[in-house]
Specification:
Blueprint lengths: L1 E7 L2 H23 L2 E5 L6 H7 L9 E5 L1 E3 L9 H8 L21 H16 L11 E4 L24 E6 L2 E6 L1 H5 L3 E6 L5 H7 L19 E7 H4 L5
Parallel strand pairs: 1-9, 2-3, 2-5, 5-8, 8-9
Antiparallel strand pairs: 4-7, 6-7
GO molecular function, one term: 6-phosphogluconolactonase activity
Function: Hydrolysis of 6-phosphogluconolactone to 6-phosphogluconate.
Protein name: 6-phosphogluconolactonase
Length: 240
């Protein structure tokens, strides 16, 4: 694992650096494999990155979009990660609908929809059960409690090692999420973190010793490159 940590002056600088790196990794993936697979994060921090990506002239037909997690709400719900990404980026460019791979959330059984999405990933990446695909780029954030994707502290989803997709739990509300091993098989994982409220979580994530079941982002140790991009309010207390 190649571990990189950068503290940027402010959120604008964080977005600019994120755009620079993500574009470079998109170009690299397309050059090497003629396509790029990206799993998006929800939340407010990556939204300006998506808006910036929408201004670029990229070969959209060679880019495939997924989500690292999703709230179990319809895709038209204001809380939907898919809706946010569509409004900020995907619906603003000529993005092929066939290249957008949302997590299904309109059934009545989150576990069944997680299985459906896992089957879709297996078919897309042409892998067998028990194998893990290698996403080119996975974008993540963290919460004030150090959760990432929908991998929340002391929840069953943290223990899943034999699945690509599972059901997360946020205060009794189901979410569908990539599993720890799926994320860790990515070529590039980017954490985008902004705001002073994340200082305590980051301190535990970067500590020499801390319980990963309490601070789940510690579990993310990918086979490829790991990038932590922080704005100054988030990263000012870190000894890096």
């Amino acid at each position: 694992m190649n571990h990189n940590v950068e503290v940027l002056a402010d959120k604008t600088a964080l977005v600019e650096r994120s755009l620079e790196l993500v574009r470079a990794k998109i170009d690299e993936a397309i050059q090497q494999g003629d396509r790029c697979t990206i799993a998006l994060a929800g939340g407010s921090t990556p939204k300006p990155l998506y808006e910036s990506l929408a201004t670029l002239n990229l070969p959209w037909e060679k880019i495939h979009i997924f989500w690292g997690d999703e709230r179990y709400v319809p895709p038209t719900d204001p809380d939907s990660n898919q809706l946010m990404a569509r409004q900020a980026w995907l619906d603003r460019v000529s993005f092929p609908e066939a290249n957008i791979h949302p997590i299904p959330t309109q059934g009545e059984d989150p576990a069944m929809d997680a299985q459906r999405h896992e089957a879709h990933l297996q078919q897309f990446f042409t892998i067998s059960p028990g194998e893990f695909p290698n996403f080119d780029i996975i974008l993540l954030g963290i919460g004030d409690d150090a959760h990432t994707a929908s991998l929340f502290p002391h929840t069953e989803a943290l223990q899943v090692r034999d699945r690509l997709v599972t059901v997360g739990n946020k205060d009794g509300q189901p979410r569908i999420t990539f599993t720890v091993p799926l994320i860790n098989h990515a070529h590039n994982v980017f954490f985008l973190v902004a705001g002073a409220s994340k200082q305590q979580a980051l301190g535990q994530i970067f500590a020499d010793e801390a319980d990963p079941l309490t601070y789940p982002a510690r579990l993310i140790q990918p086979l490829g490159e790991l990038w932590w991009l922080l704005d100054e309010p988030a990263g000012r207390e870190l000894a890096i």
